[in-house]
Amino acid sequence: MASTDSTHQEKHSIVYHPADVDVAASLVAGSHVDQDLDQDLALRLRRKIDWHLMPFMCSTITFMDKTSLGQAAVLGIEKGAHLNANQFNWLGTIFYFSYLLFQYPQNLALQRFPVGKWMSINIFVWAIVLCCHAACTSFAGLFIVRFLLGICEGAITPGFMIVTSMFYTRAEQTRRVGYWFLMNGFAVIILGFIAFGVLHTHTHNFMPWQWLMIITGIITLLTSVLFWFFFPDSPTTAWFLTPEERIAALKRIQVNQTGVENKFFKIEQFHETVKDPKTWLLAFFAAAANIVNSLTNQRQLIVAQFGFNPLQTTLLGCVDGAVEILTIFLAVTLASQPYIGRAYAGVLMYVPAILGAILVSTLPFSNKVGLLFSYWISISAIAPFTIFLGWVASITAGHTKRITTNAIVLSAYAIGNAVGQFMWKSQYKPRNHIPWAVITVTNLSSAVALLALRYLYQRENKRRDFETRDDTYDAVYIKTESGEEKQVDKASAP
């Protein structure tokens, strides 16, 4: 409970119980680390954090698993599990329906429990479920395991977003989110080579797509163990930082003014988030921008329809991954330039994506090389969402507000992915004019939404710049168990 304190005569002040403020506040309060952090120390800390954090968030296995269904399409899953085209589409959709259904519970769990440990548990269950895919020979069985896989996936992206905002400054977050998100591309490449290998296996009653699930499941299982022991929960407990470095790491990110972590759900922050129109514009973008992500499960089938055989399709899929890597890297590089920024960088990436989608639908079907290159150009539409994730992580202060915003945005992401699967109907094949038209329109709508978001946040920043500074409570303190009061950063307060 907050209370004013008349003992601080020079300024108005407010005193909070430690449970009401960010968990980092108690650690930093009264520390002997200089308030003005030495730049050399800050750079050394960032390098140390990068070496211990980024390898985990860039682990390709966390992206390989959710793209495995698309690869399995050319490895015989439709024949092996007796699926028709509509049932195959439902397997992609149910993954995102369960992701949507459990998104807010997963975000609440990420607030309530240690982030690293909770993600490790989900990755472990994920591995078991992935292996269970190989035992499924019917639509019903695959439907169940895909549903369970979506539940586990719901902890990964929001967990990475929370950890990124805990350890990095706003200026650093765009590139870091881009680095771990572009691992989608590496995952596609690695899966392509694994699929090429298992296509040459000849085992009785065990098809190539089943080997793919077993191999990726075992790798995921090993990854979960590494996450449990080595992935940090927060800067306040990071095993690779000394006590002094933990305090310095927290002071390094105070420029964010977003806090680090608070284990208590604050209903007023929840209400503030859901009443903010900008939250729902963020959600609109997340949904519209991910219609194109339906290509994840359809890409192998699309390329095969251009006239390539299964071996060629599998190897050509590796190029998809290379295109993803290059476009995401270009996008986050552009977004990090002060004279361009996130919104304009995202719009620039939509230009070739829209052109590619139009060409895939209009080029003669006999021009399979032209269709293939147009398809690859259209993949650049995934890059703006990467920039967007870094943007969301950096503009939200307050832990309850952050997990609520993440839940709403990623629920919209799930809706976009789920709805997108239904476009790819049998009657539209092989040209798929309707799906490509929808992708073109949603890409254009997403670009407009980015510009609208930029305008709204720019207008809000200008309004705040002209506001009279409120110094009613210019000093914020916490009262320790011993009764001692320690001053903390005002951004740590509720």
Automatic annotation (TrEMBL):
> What is this protein called in UniProt?
Major facilitator superfamily domain-containing protein
Name the family the entry cites. Answer: Belongs to the major facilitator superfamily. Allantoate permease family.
Q: Kindly name one Pfam family recorded for this protein.
A: MFS_1
Q: Which residues cross the membrane?
A: 88-106, 118-140, 180-199, 211-231, 314-335, 347-366, 372-393, 405-424, 436-457
Q: Name one GO molecular function term.
A: transmembrane transporter activity
What is the native source organism of this protein? Boletus reticuloceps
The membrane topology of this protein is: Multi-pass membrane protein
PANTHER family per record:
HIGH AFFINITY CYSTEINE TRANSPORTER, PERMEASE-RELATED
Q: Which UniProt keywords apply?
A: Membrane, Transmembrane, Transmembrane helix, Transport
Q: What is its main location?
A: membrane
Gene Ontology CC: one annotated term: membrane
